[in-house]
Design goal:
The complex is a heterodimer.
Chain A: H1 9-14, H2 20-30, H3 34-57, H4 59-67, H5 74-77, H6 82-108, E1 112-115, E2 118-121, E3 123-125, E4 127-129, E5 140-143, E6 151-157, E7 161-167, E8 171-173, H7 176-181, E9 187-195, E10 201-205, E11 208-211
Parallel strand pairs in A: 3-10
Antiparallel strand pairs in A: 1-2, 4-5, 5-8, 6-7, 6-9, 9-10, 9-11
Chain B: H1 2-32, H2 39-55, H3 65-87, H4 107-119, H5 122-133, H6 138-145, H7 149-168
Classes of the chains: A alpha+beta, B mainly alpha.
Chain lengths: 216, 169
């Protein structure tokens, strides 16, 4: 018997799942199609039995469901299709590869400092003295030597720049005029920058604070 | 000549009524509710109405006889519901959706069918369980079992074929 195109609607009609328009269409149809009407009455009977006696008929199915309860992660996994999971995994792997490749590159670069909000690449200069509060006005400022052919620039501040000078040595003596300017109980800070012979910045120290506890 | 024509007409009408009575009955029961005792009266009303209209010559073959009867059936059902609503004005409206699984008409036959389902292989019983008992859609069943929706329909149909085989024995 040739299949009627309305046959697929039988189940949904019996279970009230059809739209109002489709319901009306189908209802008119089975007044005109004996094949569909017959199939429908058979299925209605089956449905009635299943619904009324299901509890005793499907014992095995109830038991299987009890034991095969969906694991807690099932809703999470079914959120994506297997194909989408594969794509996501590949994308994640690629990102990971890129990140891991970039990290070594970043690490090998020299430490960076912010000086007056400018990002400076370079080594660090260790300041030796004065780095703590001192009794007298300091005469000499010392720092760690970086190497040959390095030009150092020193900066001394209270709340603004007090004095700056350049030297090729790793220390400098404070001139008397500047010493006279320095008083006790004032906060001072100083910093050294190192430059290559060409004039490029190669290292910077942090700005260290110190206080003079008394003046002569 | 007229007598023969009339006789033919009568036979035809009888045939029509016997053919359409079950269909009208199905539709009326579904709309009124299987437990509603009025359904038989309504069916008879409809049949009388159909006969009247045919005799009056109101059926001119513009539509099929099935559609003609369907329209009369639908109108009569609406009328009945309206009548009932008027009487029960202070009571809740009758539910428009039929409860499809109310009563099993033939208890012995139901028992036979139930036994037949139990005899099915798990694969085919399971599909009836999910699709009919759990009332899942084709797509939901397909996803649960990991097969295509088309396969679901095929399996549902095949299960019923198997049932028919078992019941015929």
């Amino acid at each position: 018997m040739k299949k009627c195109e309305y046959e697929d609607l039988i189940d949904d009609y019996l279970r009230n799942k059809l739209s109002e328009a489709d319901t009306k269409k189908f209802e008119e149809h089975y007044f005109n199609c004996s094949s569909c009407f017959q199939k429908m009455t058979e299925r209605e009977e089956l449905l009635a039995v299943i619904k009324n006696k299901g509890y005793e008929i499907f014992q095995n199915e109830f038991l299987t469901e009890e034991t095969k309860r969906s694991p807690w992660y099932e809703p999470l996994i079914s959120f994506l299709t297997p194909r989408q999971w594969a794509l996501a995994a590949v994308s994640a792997a690629l990102i990971l590869v890129v990140v891991l490749a970039v990290i070594p590159i970043m690490k090998s670069s020299s430490p960076q400092f912010f000086i007056n909000e400018d990002l400076v690449r370079g080594q660090s200069i260790t300041l030796i003295s004065p780095v703590i509060d001192i009794k007298n006005v300091p005469s000499e400022f010392k720092w760690k030597n970086l190497g040959k052919d390095v030009e150092y620039k020193i900066y001394i501040y209270n709340d603004k720049l007090l004095w700056t000078a350049t030297t090729k040595q790793n220390s400098i003596t404070l001139p008397d005029e500047v010493k006279k300017l320095m008083t006790s109980d004032q906060k001072y800070s100083w910093q050294v920058k190192a430059f290559s012979p060409e004039g490029g910045l190669i290292a910077v120290s942090s700005r260290v604070q110190f206080k003079i506890t008394s003046t002569k | 000549m007229d007598e023969v024509k009339n006789k033919n007409k009568e036979v035809n009408l009888e045939q029509i009524i016997s053919k359409y009575r079950p269909i009208i009955g199905f539709r009326v029961k579904r709309s009124l509710g299987h437990s509603n005792p009025d359904w038989e009266d309504v069916v008879n009303e409809i049949i009388l109405n159909v006969l009247e209209k045919i005799k009056k010559g109101e059926f001119r073959g513009e539509s099929s006889i099935g559609t003609f009867i369907y329209i009369i059936t639908s109108r009569r059902i609406v009328d009945y519901i309206r009548r009932k609503s008027k009487v029960l004005r202070h009571m809740p409206e009758p539910s428009p959706l039929p409860a499809p699984y109310e009563q099993i008409e033939n208890k012995e036959r139901a028992e036979l069918i139930a036994r037949a389902i139990k005899k099915l292989k798990p694969k085919y019983r399971e599909i009836l369980y999910l699709y009919y008992y759990r009332d899942m859609t084709r797509e939901e069943v397909a996803q649960k079992l990991g097969i295509s929706p088309r396969r679901v329909s095929e399996r549902v149909n095949y299960s019923q074929k198997l049932l028919r085989k078992i019941l015929k024995k």
